[in-house]
Amino acid sequence: MRVNQQPEIISISPEKTVLLAKNSRERPGRFDFLVREKEKTIGIEVLTRPSKGKMREKLAYANEVDEFIFALPENSLEFYRKKAQNGIRRVINKNFLPKEFSDQKLGVWLVDCRKGMVTEKGPFGKLFEVK
Q1: Rg (alpha carbons) of the chain, rounded to whole number
Q2: Is the pLDDT of residue 3 over 60?
Q3: For 89, phi and psi rounded to 5 degrees?
Q4: What percent of the chain has pLDDT over 70?
Q5: Spatial separation of the C-alpha atoms in residues 7 and 42, rounded to whole Å
Q6: Tell me, what's the pLDDT at 1?
Q7: What pLDDT band is residue 71 in, cutting at 50, 70 and 90?
Q8: Which residues, at least 6 apart from 128, have a Cβ–Cβ distance to it below 8 Å?
Q9: pLDDT of 14-51, one tens digit each?
């Protein structure tokens, strides 16, 4: 696997429960998928109807892993995109996501639901407008 530049995956756990600490209280939380590699742990959260509020709640999960990925439908959150679909940058865009979304370990996969494939992926702050 090292020759092919692929990570050595130890396990992939769907619906993995973890304890999240907030205000000195612990509460259970659940990753949609938890991937354990030899060197790091990746949490994946799949949201079919994402909103800023839902995603903000899930950001607490990012503290439990080395990398946290949101898997979203490709046309969701279009108001927060840095570029319009035709590739032209919007001149006036007053819609921003809060600065919590600019964390380096926070990533996003945009999925074409009809084709069942990832069309775009990268750091969250690179694909969306973040204050």
Answers
A1: 16
A2: no
A3: -70, 135
A4: 79
A5: 12
A6: 41
A7: very high
A8: 77, 80, 81, 82, 97, 101, 108
A9: 888 877 666 667 777 788 898 988 888 899 999 988 88
Q: Is the pTM of this model over 0.90?
A: no
- What's the CA angle centered on 130, arms 55 and 78, to 5 degrees? 65
Residues contacting residue 45 through CB under 8 Å, at least 6 positions apart: 31, 32, 58, 61, 68, 69, 70, 71
| Three-state helix/strand/coil letters over 51-100 | CHHHHHHHHHHHHHCCEEEEEEECCCCHHHECECCCCCECCCCCCCECHH
Stated as kind and residue range, the H or E segment containing 124 is helix 124-127
Classify domain 9-127 at the CATH topology level: Trna Endonuclease; Chain: A, domain 1 (3.40.1350)
